[in-house]
Amino acid sequence: MQYRSGKELRELFLSFFEEKGCKRYHSFSLVPDDPTLLFTIAGMVPFKPYFLGIKTPEVTRATTAQKCVRTNDIENVGRTARHHTFFEMLGNFSFGDYFKNEIIPWSWELLTERVGLDPDRLYATIYLDDDEAHDIWRDKVGLPENRIVRLGDDDNFWAAGPVGPCGPCSEIIYDQGEEYSCGKPTCGVGCDCDRYLEIWNLVFMQYNRDAAGKLTPLPKKNIDTGMGLERLASVVQNVRTDFETDLFRPIIDKACSISGTEYGSNKLNDMAVKVISDHLRASAFMIADGILPTNDGTGYVLRRIIRRSVRFGRLLGIDRPFLTELLPAVRESVGDEYHELIEQSSAIEQVLKTEEERFSRTLTQGSDLLESEMEKVEKDGSKILSGEVAFVLYDTFGFPLELTEEMCAERSISIDIDGFEAAMEEQRTRARASSKQTSSVISKNVYTELADKIAPTPFCGYSAMEADTEIAAIIVDGAQSDSISEGTKADIVLSNTPFYGEKGGQVGDTGTITSGDCVFEVEDTIYPASDLIVHRGVLKSGTLKKGQRVTAAVNADRRRAIQRHHTATHLLHEALTRVLGKHVRQAGSLVTPTFLRFDFNHFSPVTIDEIREVERIVYEQVLKCSPVETNVMPIEEAKKTGAKALFDEKYGDEVRVLKIDDYSTELCGGTHVKNTGEIGLIKIIKEEGIGSGIRRINAIAGYPALELNQRLGYAVASMSNMLGEDMDNITSRIEELLDEKKVLERKNRELQVKGAMADIEDTVKPCATINGVDLIAERFDNITPDLLRQIGDRIRQKYPTALMLLAGVGELGRVSLTAMASDEAIAKGAHAGNMLKETAALLGGKGGGRPSLAQGGAPSADKLDEAFAKAPKIFASIMKG
C-alpha cells in the first residue's frame, strides 16, 4: 500500500466524489446554524435541514471535509488511540439522488483502487434485515459472504432523533492484523479492540419514523456517509494510533522539542504531548471560527481545552507560555485546505497567549492550595489526599490528576482515586443533563414551511425605500391566515420588499404596508427562517387579504440613520485594526438608528489616546467623502480581494462586498450610505470589557452625535460660568477643588477621631479580663470602618494586650463592626475573627477575619446593647479554646 499524507487523502476523497457529480463545499463553521448543538459534530450537520425536509437543497450531490468538535470524553483524549476533540470528517451526501446501488460500489472503488487498501482485509457490516445492501456487497462488489456481518440497532441503524428520517447503515471495517488483536477467542468484527477498525460509515436514510415507532419508506431516499480522516490516515500510514500520523506528529515533535522529551520513551509524557497536539488543533480552529474563551457554551469548552493543554505542558516541565510556538506545526499538518488558520493567525496567537498567561497564574494558586492540603494530610498522619480535593484541583484549578499524583508522591502521599472518580462522575452527570448535544431534533413550523415554498424573499431595499408588491402570506398566532382585520397583530410576507430584516447586527426596518385606506404598521422586520423576510406589526385600519396588492414603504429617516451607523461601524472596525493591531476581529455588533455597538477581541482596555486616534482616523474618512461601493461576487473571489468576513455572519456562494475607497473592504449584506460624508460626526461614547479578551465600543453618528456635542458644549459653558474660568482651565480648576475637598475630608476625619477619643482615657475600660487579656467593647456614633481602626490603634496604646470589639453606628442605623487583637493577646488565645463572627450573628449580620483583624456589619443597631452584654461570655468561650 502506497504511503499517502493526510493532505493527500483529503484531496483524494474530495476529488473522487467530484468525479461522481458531487459539489465540493469548503468546510462549514464549527459553530452550527442549529440551536440544538454547541458544535458541528458530524459532516451531515450543515445539511440536516435538507435531510429533515425543512429546506430544499440547491444541489442533489455534495461532498465535504468537515471540521468537527466533540466533547463527550475530553478526559480520554491522549489515553486511547483515537479519542479526539477536533477531527475531520470526510463525507459525501445524496439528497434524493444516488443510493445504495451507487455508494456501496463507489466506496469500494475509492478504498481499494484509489487509496490502495488490501481488498482481502476489508469487511462490511449491515443491518439485520438489509438484504438489499447484502446483495450489493456480495453480488456487485464481490465481497465474500463470510466478510459481510449483520448487526442490530445499536451498531447499524441511524436516526436523526426519536421521530423523523432514519435508516440502516453499513460500516466498512479494516482488519489491521493479529498484532492489533485483544487475543480473545471471540475477537472478530464488532470487538472493542483495534484489530477490526471501522473506517467508513454509509448511512441509508430510507424511512420516516413516526411517534408510534412505525417506519414508512421516504419518497426520496438520502445518503449520508462519514469517514474520519485521522483514522484513515493511521491505516494508510501503517501506524498504531492516529497521533502517529502526519496530521499530529509535527505538533507532537515540536512539543517534545520544547519540553526536552522523546516521544515513545515515557507513557506519561506521551499522553501529555498527545493531549497538547489534539487540543491545540481544536483551539486554533475554534478561535478561527470566532469562538473566544468564556465561562459558558462554546467559549467554556475552548477555555477548558486551552487550560488542559497548559497543565499538561506543566507535567512535561514547561513552565512558560509555549502554545503559540506550536501553531506553525498545526498549519503545516493540516495543509492549505483551511485558509482561515492563515487569515486569523494573529487573533489565534493573541487569544492563546492571553489565556495561557492568565491560566498560569491560576495554576500557581492551585499549587498553593495543594501545598496547604498536603500539610493537613501530613499533620493528620493519614497519608491520603481526599478525592474531593483532587477533583477541585482538577476542575477549578486545572490540575490533571497525574500532576496532583506526581506532586503528592514526592511527599509519599497517595490519592483517594475512588473519591476522585465519584466526583468526576457527578460532574459528567450534570454535564449530560445540561448538554445541548444530547438533542439533534429540529422541528418544522409555519415559517420553515413558508421558507421552503416561497423563500428567498426578493429584497429591493438597496436601491428603493418603497415598492408596489403583493401579500404572499399572513401569519397570526403561529398559523397562516387568509385575511386580517383592524387591530390584529400579524406577520406579513410580501412577494418582494424594500424592508431590511434584522440580520448581521443591523436592526430591522419599520414603516407601513398600505392599500387604499388599509394601513398596516410595520413595527419590526425579521428573518424567522432562512431567507424569509417577515414584516411584524399591527393592522391600524381596514382589512388585508392574502394576494392583495399593497405599497410597502420604509421609514426613510430611520433607515438613513441606520445606514449612517452601519457604515460608521465599518470605518471603526478598520481604524481599530490600524491602531490596536491586526488581531482585532469583530465579535458581535448592533446597528440601530440612534447608536452602534461594536464588540471586538482585544486584551486590555483601549486607552484615551488610542480612542482619540481611532476617532481621528474615522473622521478623516468622513471628511474625504469617500465613495462607498457595493459589488456582488462569488465568495472565493471576494476573499481574494482581501475582504474581511465578519464573525457570526452566514455567507452563501455569492456575497456583497462593501468597499470604502482604498480604506476598507468587507463582506456585508447591510444597507449603507453612498459616501462617507453622509455620516457626519462620529463620537465614541463608551469603551468597556464584556468578557475575557472581549472589548465593547458604543458610538453615535449623525444627528445623535450632534445632539451629544451640543449637550457637552452646554455643560462645559455652564461649568465655565460657575467656576469663572475659561474652557481650557476648567479641568485644572476642578482638580484643585477635588484636592481641596480631600484635604477637608481628611481634616474632618481627624476631628471625628479626636472627638471620639477625647474621653477615652476616662470612659474606655475593659469589660472583662481573662489570662491577662482585656476585652474592650465600645460603641461610636457616625464613625466609618476606617475610623474605627484608627480608634482601635489609639486604644491599643493604652491597652497593649487586648481584644477590641468596636461598633460604629451610621446615620441610618446600620452597624459597622471591627475587631482587633494584639500579637500578645493572640498568643494567649484571643481571636478577632471568631469574636466578630459570633457578635455579628447576634445582630443579624455577618463578618469574620483573621485572628488580628476582622470586619463585618449588621443592618440595624436595635440589638447592639444586647449583643455587647453577651460579649464577655463569647470572649470567655474563645479564650478557653
What report would you give on this structure?
By secondary structure, this protein is an alpha+beta fold. About 40% of the residues lie in helices and about 25% in strands. It is built from 26 helices and 33 strands. Strands 1, 2, 3, 4, 5, 6, 7, 8 and 9 form a 9-stranded mixed sheet that branches. It has a 6-stranded antiparallel barrel with strand order 12-15-18-17-16-20. The protein has a 6-stranded mixed sheet with strand order 28-29-30-31-33-32, sandwiched between helices. The longest helix has about 35 residues, at about 345-380. The radius of gyration is 35 Å and the shape is globular. The N and C termini lie far apart (about 80 Å). The model is unreliable at about 435-440 (pLDDT under 50).
Rg from C-alpha positions?
35 Å
Beta strands, count = 33
List unreliable stretches of 5+ residues.
Answer: 433-441
Specify the number of helices. Answer: 26
Summarize the amount of helix as a percent range: 25-40%
- The general outline is globular
What is the beta-strand fraction?
25-35%
* Rounded average pLDDT: 90
Which structural class do the helices and strands define?
alpha+beta
